[in-house]
Amino acid sequence: MPIEIKTDDELKLWAGRALLDVDSTKVLNQQLPLPLLNQAASSNVLPEHVRRQIALAAWTRAVILDDVESGKAAASTALVLAPEIKTYLTAYQSAKTRDDRLAAGLYAILKFPGLKPYVDSSTGRLTPLAERDIYRDNWWCDLTPSPNTESESGEATEDTQDKNLPVEDGLPLSLDFLSSTQVSAASREHSQLLALGTAPNYLARATIAWANRTPTDPRIPEALHLVVLSTRYGCTDTESPKWSKAAFDLLHKRYPGSEWAKKTPYWFKDV
Fold it and tell me: How far apart are CA 239 and CA 32, in angstroms?
């Protein structure tokens, strides 16, 4: 638990509650395939607040990886555990085509910055799902492991201190209960997530592709607006300014009279 547990009113609410530790989150994030994550989320063995986090992570991962069966299973569990996104989960479940399903999932992820395809240790993100965290703990960061870097003082940088990200800091735990098929599936999912990079870049690519497929979809202007905001309030890298400008340009070129274009006077280039 954070050291402020005894003095912070918000953290006091978590005192005495069972939470995930670093080892368990690395197993969940790196070594379990989606069907097992869904099994964990639906099992009464875990406390409800942990099941909720796993269900939301599994659903987000399924959306990103376009795993329909796992996505629908995770959505069914999340409907009960996270009722605040019920409308969006229902839209995803009722979608008739692959494109409609991807659009529904992507729109939900954009609307809820607290969604991410992995789980956190300890209390995790405390900001409500629909709100932007003031410390940029929104969506997810680039999960690709980077060489350990040190500051001029010789201390580990903030990136290397984030134990929630699936950093490859040694051999994975040996999970004897997994079949070879499950091990392969988890490895494949993990590799696919690593290849996506940081959330704002992925969200921009996916939203621009969505806009080009169905330019008359009424959700597109807001989605492009949210993409631009993600490059301000999410984890960014050297590629993010390019995607921020691309979403901004498309919004103002194709939907100049929309309320969302008016609410998006800037794109962001600071990393």
Answer: 30
Taking 60 as the threshold, does the pLDDT of residue 6 lie above it? yes
Res 11: pLDDT: 77
Residue with tokens 């965290």: 133
**Which of 144, 254, 159 is CA-nearest to residue 201?**
144
Q: Maximum CA pair distance of the chain?
A: 58
Retrieve residue 112's tokens.
């809820």
Position 70, amino acid: S
In contact, 207 and 106? CB cutoff 8 Å: yes
Structure confidence by residue, pLDDT tens digits, 142-152: 877 654 433 33
Contact of 268 with 231, CB cutoff 8 Å: yes
Give the residue carrying structure tokens 């631009």: 228
How far is the CA of 51 from the CAs of 119, 235, 259, 270, in angstroms?
10, 26, 38, 36
pTM value is 0.88
